[in-house]
Design goal:
2% helix; mainly beta; 257 residues; nine-stranded antiparallel sheet; single chain; 1 helix
Length: 257
């Protein structure tokens, strides 16, 4: 199997046959959300006829999914990323499990965490796995820069090592996409200067012309300041500082409320 392959499955009454503990024998897996009361749900997972509740009192979460991948090919287990989605496609639950010695074992549950005043870790879905323990989780608006690019989805690096999951600190993060159809925003009338490096002293990389489309591709955190890297339609790229900024450069900021 490909080490970087992520397979996705939808919850309900379907029983999936998957070798979860890599012993050559397929397990029978099913999972679903069960209504409790007052819009609260429990998340039930059944493996080989044994049912466990992996989460309860989940509010406004209706649809259950799992992504299965081999995050670390050396540990002898497949990894199961269970998550739940509610109203307006809001991700309300996400957790990483393995099936070890006949039991589901929780390795990590995503919880809201404030990294700093501009950076929040929340729930997310698996986006990419490396096979050596490194993986990326796609989160909605992990960085608070909505005044600049609207709702966006950031890739957050994480690592699984010896059964423990940790957030990998770095300065530059990839933007997976923004919340509009073409993943681009339009430059306003006039000219916009983009810089070669995320620095106040950097030289100009290119000048965007009016009505040109640009796509945000990276976010850089440097000493508390945020920079966003954009790529133009003709392949040129450059940085803008979020903090030295007004709404002028763009005409179609994306707001979702």
């Amino acid at each position: 199997k490909a080490a970087n392959k992520i397979r996705s499955f939808e919850g309900g009454d379907t029983i999936y046959e998957i070798d979860l503990d890599e012993d050559g024998v397929k397990e029978e897996l099913s999972f679903k959300l069960v209504y409790d009361k007052d819009d609260y749900y429990s998340y039930l997972v059944t493996v080989n006829g044994e049912t466990v509740t992996i989460a309860d009192e989940l509010y406004d979460i209706y649809d259950a999914y799992v992504q299965i991948a081999d995050i670390d090919v050396t540990d002898g287990y497949m990894d199961l990323w269970f998550y739940g989605i509610g109203t307006s496609d809001i991700l309300g639950y996400a957790a990483l499990y393995q099936y070890q010695n006949g039991e589901l074992v929780e390795l990590h549950r995503m919880e809201p965490e404030e990294v700093d005043e501009r950076f929040f870790l929340g729930n997310g879905v698996l986006h990419k796995v490396k096979g050596d323990g490194r993986f990326f989780v796609k989160m909605e608006s992990a960085f608070w820069v909505d005044d600049l690019i609207g709702n966006h989805y950031d890739l957050i690096p994480m690592k699984l090592e010896d059964g423990e999951v940790s957030f990998v600190k770095t300065k530059t993060y990839t933007i997976a996409n923004i919340y509009n159809e073409k993943n681009q925003i339009t430059l306003a009338p006039g000219m916009t200067e983009f810089y070669k490096k995320p620095s106040e002293d950097a030289k100009i990389a290119f000048v965007g012309r009016r009505w040109e489309k640009v796509r945000p591709i990276k976010i850089r955190r440097s000493e508390g300041t945020l920079y966003v890297k954009f790529k133009s339609e003709n392949g040129k790229s450059g940085w803008l500082c979020v903090d030295d900024y007004d709404m002028g450069p763009f005409t179609d900021l994306i707001w979702v409320g």
